[in-house]
Amino acid sequence: MLEFSDGQKKIVAAGVTALALVVVAAFAAAVVWAGVRVLELTASAFVPVLMGLFLSLFFKPYFGWFRKRVRNPTLAFAAMFATIALPLGLVAWFAGSAIVGQVSNFLSVAPKLFVKMSAWCQANHPGWEQSLRQLGAPENALLFFTDPNAFSHDVCAQLGSAYSGSAVKVGFGIVKSMLGLLNWIIVFVFFVYFLMKPDVKGVDVARHLAFCKEGTRAFLAEQIDAFFDVLVSFFQRQVLICLVEGVLYGTGFALVGLPYGFLLGFGLGVVNLVPLLGSVAFLPVAAVLAFFGDGGSMMRLAGVLGVWLCGQVADNYFITPRIQGDKTGLGFAGVIFSFVFWGAVFHSLLGLLLAIPLSAFWLVLWRALKTKYVRPVL
Q1: pTM confidence score
Q2: Contact (Cβ atoms closer than 8 angstroms) between residue 335 and residue 357
């Protein structure tokens, strides 16, 4: 019988421990990979359900206010829907034409802006087109900057050639549009269903997990409640933040004399429901319009950038901390990773919308598991 010295026993114990850690890590990675694959394959099926659930959770407090005053849930839903639809209808009736007019006017002047920008780049930075070609920029993108009218004609020609003479493709396009409408109908159905349904607590879900220990069921119930708390409070507060930012950016852009300033600024703030997306989508357009639009100047461009920077400072140090707080617990790197990961999983806007609350939930779950099952090293 072999006998090991104390040093050899320590080495063997360390090796077995390391091997066990590798096995546990491999198993956890396999579970995560399998879960991601399942989400990828079934995302299209449960996306309408999740959207309906999210909308119901978002409007639940508002619906609850009506339920306290109207006993009939159908009448309460009708009253709630009317208070939402009527203001939106009035806005569309009185301001819709003005908004559509501004959008159409902006689209009409956009080609002139890009022609002016191309001429300015050619005068101040000769050879910029060749540099972009060397970087691998497609010809269509260069045509968009040098001759936007030709670009639009080229795009229309490509679309026409893709669908001309192909009744099958046109038919599939119609079917796809009908399926998209059907998805929104399904979302509305699940929205009404979850809205009418009483609140589901973690205890109600854990009660069906009879195969788990009582302590495990209590732990799971706590995590389910934490997930819904993060999900609901994040989106309710984020919508308020985006509306406040939209008004601030719109007012600031209008004050510095940016054409269509309020429209662009409000769009920048609202689209920031997915953080950073509004800045990426609207700030370049505002900058181009500030410098190359009618009456454009470096001073106006500096004003637009100054409004955006002030908005970022106000958002980071005042608006979001006061309204949202640090409920998610994610840093900047965690936010970026969340967008990339969940966007790849869901392949849709839903992944971007749910990125932060889903990542925050996993962070909360990990901390709870670590506190419950991992002993601190002394």
Answers
A1: 0.68
A2: no
